[in-house]
Design brief:
With 309 residues, this protein is mostly beta strands. It contains one helix and 24 strands.
């Protein structure tokens, strides 16, 4: 039967363990997976608080990006029916940031030791004036965590929608990351995408390359859904997203405490870019009752030999 929103859930599979905190925006607070050699390896920069400030949340864990990811410029969503005003986020003012689902308590059910479902009913509000339902399904394996994220439009009018995950990963300062993408979206100083251009070979991550030092913020698209990144201690975390997730955000703050690798369905401010006629934003509109879903798998594997390239 459903747990109270404040109840934590612990998933276990072999030596692996994931702590879920539905009351804190449906977060995965910590994750430990078994490496091929048998060691149990922490994957995430852990989320510690027992609850969440809906506007100034603590960093850490994995939280869901629903009903959109990243920013909407000037907190105004341009639609075929006219502009819709939203509540700006104080840390991204005058823009919005990452939707409202991660700042609300979710309801949770644990079906087995290694499986759980979290759901959210969101009524129309200043942050998002459409009614929607969201869900997460999580399945832990000894060396992997499988996640499904979905949203259904429960309003009586079409709704713009997007999905994604916001993981805070542990990583080595000179961690290598490997991925294949085709497109870079340059940004303004306040992290709004401006346009799309082909990714240059020197900007790419194939073959796996060491992350450049210092602050990092890249908006990528044409991503094939696969990614590898070095964790502390020598293990490698592999990501595999389905075809709904063709965009990726890489972000690391100046102090380098964590690396955010965010698989998402659309680019920052994608709805407004689409309204201006830009292609490839990844945005979509859901008719009443229509849904959007995506899947992601985080898997721990042994490190590949160092490459000289």
């Amino acid at each position: 039967m459903p747990d109270a929103p404040s109840a934590d859930i612990v998933l276990r599979a072999g030596g692996a363990q994931a702590l879920l905190r539905p009351a804190a925006g449906g977060r995965v607070c910590s994750l430990r997976l078994e490496a091929p050699g048998g060691d149990v390896v922490p994957v995430l920069f852990a989320y510690e608080p027992a609850d969440v400030d809906p506007l100034r949340w603590a960093k850490g864990g994995i939280y869901p990006l629903v009903p959109y990811s990243n920013r909407i410029a000037q907190a105004r969503l341009h639609t075929p029916q006219g502009a819709v005003g939203l509540s700006p986020h104080p840390d991204a003012h005058p823009h919005t940031l990452h939707g409202n689902a991660h700042g609300m308590p979710w309801q949770a059910t644990q079906t087995q030791d290694a499986q759980a479902t979290m759901t959210l009913e969101s009524a129309p509000c200043a942050a998002w004036p459409w009614r929607y339902q969201a869900w997460q399904r999580l399945h832990l394996e000894p060396n992997a965590l499988r996640l499904e994220l979905g949203i259904v439009n429960r309003d009586d009018r079409p709704m713009p929608a997007g999905l994604g995950w916001h993981p805070y990963l542990l990583h080595r300062p000179q961690a290598r990351i490997g991925l294949s993408a085709t497109t870079l979206w340059p940004t303004t100083d306040d992290f709004l995408a401006t346009h799309a251009r082909p990714l240059r070979p020197d900007e790419g991550y194939v073959p796996p390359r060491a992350l450049r030092p210092g602050t990092l913020t890249d908006y990528l698209s044409g991503w094939d859904g696969r990614l590898d990144v070095d964790l502390p201690g020598g293990a490698v975390l592999s990501m595999q997203a389905d075809e709904a997730v063709s965009h990726l955000v890489l972000h690391r703050p100046p102090d380098g405490r964590y690396l955010c690798v965010e698989p998402v369905t659309h680019v920052a401010d994608g709805f407004n870019l689409e309204a201006r006629g830009l292609a490839g934003t990844g945005t979509c509109w859901l008719a009443a009752g229509q849904s959007l879903r995506a899947t992601l798998c985080l898997r721990l594997r042994a490190a590949a030999p160092e490459s000289s390239s």
